[in-house]
Amino acid sequence: MNWSDSAHRESIDLDDLGDDELAGAAAVGDTEAFAVLVRRVTPPLARYMGRMVNDPQTAEDLTQETLLDAWKGLPNFAFRSTFRTWVFTIGHRKSADHHRRRRDVPFDDERFAELEAAGPLLAEEAERQELIDALRAELDNLPSSSRAAWWLKEVEGLTLEEISQVLRISTGSVRGHLQRSRKFLHTRLAPWDPGRRSSTSSADEREGEVHA
């Protein structure tokens, strides 16, 4: 595709192009193509940075720095991964650098209720909010890499291969982080498991009937 051909360029609806096609155009200086990319990638990138950095303003600043670095680096982007994976890789590196500088414990998320968009977690609103608060607190107890792997998989929907590229670890290591984080969360969030509570209540009722 010849992006220098203005007549052909005007006939293209950028919103119909895939991310990697837009990245190819942006790499040769098409600012409109990059603007479309920014519009697409900013929401998930900002979400991720907000999960990994405990200050909203810092997360926003790092998001902007990530996008700026992506723009500067596009001419050298070799497309060995998707554009989205590459941007998450830049963002993850920036969050890691931030914590190395600050020695902060990552993760302070006042907007964690966005997870509710995936559907109701419990029947009662109060219990659902308790579970969300508990999940937020328990994620804070996970090691940074496990938390990042869990979030990229469960919330952002990246594949194991994409996560391995973002975190710069093997897919086997990603799988290990996911297994450990899921086991940890399953154990720690057991009190909020409606199925477990229901079976426990039924057992208690049966025991009460026996003693009666």
From TrEMBL:
- Region Disordered, as annotated, extends over 191-212
Per UniProt, the ranges with Basic and acidic residues bias are: 203-212
Q: What is this protein called?
A: Sigma-70 family RNA polymerase sigma factor
**Which superkingdom is the protein from?**
Bacteria
Record's keyword annotation contains DNA-binding: yes
Q: Which UniProt keywords apply?
A: DNA-binding, Sigma factor, Transcription, Transcription regulation
**Pfam families per UniProt:** Sigma70_r2, Sigma70_r4_2
Domain RNA polymerase sigma factor 70 region 4 type positions:
133-185
What NCBIfam families does the record tag this protein with? sigma70-ECF (TIGR02937)
Question: Domain RNA polymerase sigma-70 region, which positions?
Answer: 37-103
Family note: Belongs to the sigma-70 factor family. ECF subfamily.
